[in-house]
């Protein structure tokens, strides 16, 4: 995956598209698997809300 797919540029601000893992903290993105977000480093999984 390209790094450019993880960020959104809004004017002069840079926004992250995917959430950050609450266990691993900054710098570790969670992967988007359609119905859930999952961390590849520690295995933490969070279900998406409707």
UniProtKB/TrEMBL annotation:
Swiss-Prot/TrEMBL cofactor(s): Zn(2+)
Binding residues for Zn(2+): 21, 24, 39, 42
Domain Small ribosomal subunit protein eS31: 3-45
One Pfam family hit: Ribosomal_S27
Gene3D superfamilies: 6.20.50.180
One GO molecular-function entry: zinc ion binding
Assigned keywords, A-Z: Metal-binding, Ribonucleoprotein, Ribosomal protein, Zinc, Zinc-finger
GO biological process: translation
Cellular component, GO annotation: ribonucleoprotein complex; ribosome
Cofactor binding, per record: Binds 1 zinc ion per subunit.
Domain of life: Archaea
NCBIfam families: PRK00432.1
Name listed for the protein in its UniProt record: Small ribosomal subunit protein eS31
Native source species: Methanobrevibacter woesei
């Amino acid at each position: 995956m390209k790094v450019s797919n993880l960020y959104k540029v809004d004017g002069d601000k840079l926004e992250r598209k995917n959430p950050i893992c609450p266990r691993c903290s900054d710098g570790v993105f969670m992967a988007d698997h359609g119905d859930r977000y999952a961390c590849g480093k520690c295995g933490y999984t969070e279900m998406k809300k409707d």
